[in-house]
Design a protein that fits this description.
69% of the residues lie in helices and 0% in strands. It contains 12 helices and no strands. The chain is globular.
């Protein structure tokens, strides 16, 4: 009898059943004379358990119905969440109305609106140059030429990376000048003559250059670190410079824009020579400059260069106003280009 129980216990372990359970079942039932009789009992017990589990489990149709019901509940919950968020937004009255393109399609950008787009003036004279005559002009010109040396050594002819990095700096003068003029207007209770808006438009335009170049060239980790260092130094230096001498500050920017025109011209030469692939223009550039749908990188660089020429003229003009002993508010600002 001991051998029979031992054999049956081994079989129960193989069938993933607990030894104690079978011992208790055997003790509770009548004494079994053979292992085959115990097998019949175990088989019946197992079939009963399987039938009970089958009865408890839902049918495939029920499972599908439950799944669909769960999905509906989940979608309703998400809709309620969306409605609640829209309620919060509309409560404050700042939810954006639907904006579309001219063809009726939805406007995909939040960083600028359709009424802020424009077509660059490609007829602008790119060869203009302010000849330095005074000490301040010569100082500004030589400072810019000196700053070009490390830039050429670092980037060489990698004009995509060069443009992306320099645009992070080019957007600084406009915002610094606009803020300082804004504070001056508040302190003296005077109008700015439109120059606050003109300089802020310049800063925004330079930032859009950067947003376009980032679509074409992804900055590396060390280039990001370089941006942090250069922008921090340049912002503070230009801030102090603009406070001390606005005419020198604007003249420096004018010469910086002349160098930018030269860099973009070299960029276009490499595109024409096939050294740089003339890839399709990013979607953000097509919408911002109202370019044709089949525009390429060459078209983008062309309109950016035209923008830089306009910034050159604006800053040299601002510096000339200060040279004449006047304030910027006394001359109408060139607003409306962008």
């Amino acid at each position: 009898m001991i051998r029979v129980v031992a054999r049956c216990a081994v079989r129960s372990l193989i069938n993933r059943r607990s030894f104690n359970r079978h011992v208790s079942m055997t003790a509770a039932s009548r004494p079994l004379r053979s292992c085959s009789e115990f097998d019949v009992f175990f088989w019946r017990r197992r079939m009963a358990v399987m039938m009970m589990s089958t009865a408890d489990s839902p049918s495939p149709e029920k499972a599908t119905a439950l799944t669909e019901e769960d999905r509906r509940e989940r979608s309703v919950t998400e809709e309620k969440k969306g409605e609640s968020s829209m309620t919060v937004s509309s409560y404050w009255g700042i939810s954006r109305s639907k904006v579309t393109r001219e063809d009726g399609t939805d406007w995909p950008w939040n960083c600028f609106m359709p009424w802020e787009t424009y077509r660059a003036d490609l007829s602008i004279d790119l060869s203009k140059h302010h000849v330095p005559k005074t000490f301040i002009d010569k100082f500004a010109y030589r400072t810019v030429k000196l700053l070009r040396i490390p830039t050429d050594l670092f980037f060489k002819r990698r004009y995509g990376c060069r443009a992306m990095m320099l645009e992070t700096v080019a957007a600084v003068p406009g915002i610094v000048g606009g803020v300082l003029l804004h504070l001056r207007s508040l302190r003296k209770f005077q109008q700015s003559g439109g120059w606050i808006k003109a300089l802020l438009e310049e800063a925004e335009n330079e930032r859009m250059h950067l947003m376009t170049m980032v679509e074409l060239v992804q900055p590396k980790w060390y280039e990001r670190l370089l941006v942090l260092a250069v922008q921090g130094v340049f912002f503070n230096a230009y801030f102090v410079l603009y406070v001390l001498s606005p005419k020198l500050a604007h003249r420096v920017v004018g010469y910086l824009e002349e160098e930018a025109i030269h860099s973009y011209t070299e960029y276009l030469k490499d595109l024409n020579d096939g050294k740089i692939e003339n890839v399709p223009a990013p979607a953000i550039a097509i919408d911002y400059w109202k370019l044709p749908k089949d525009a390429t990188l060459k078209d983008v660089i062309t309109v950016i260069r035209a923008d830089e020429a306009h910034h050159r003229d604006v800053n040299h003009f601002a510096s000339d106003i200060h040279y004449q002993g006047k304030e910027l508010r006394e001359a109408p600002a060139p607003v409306g280009y962008h």
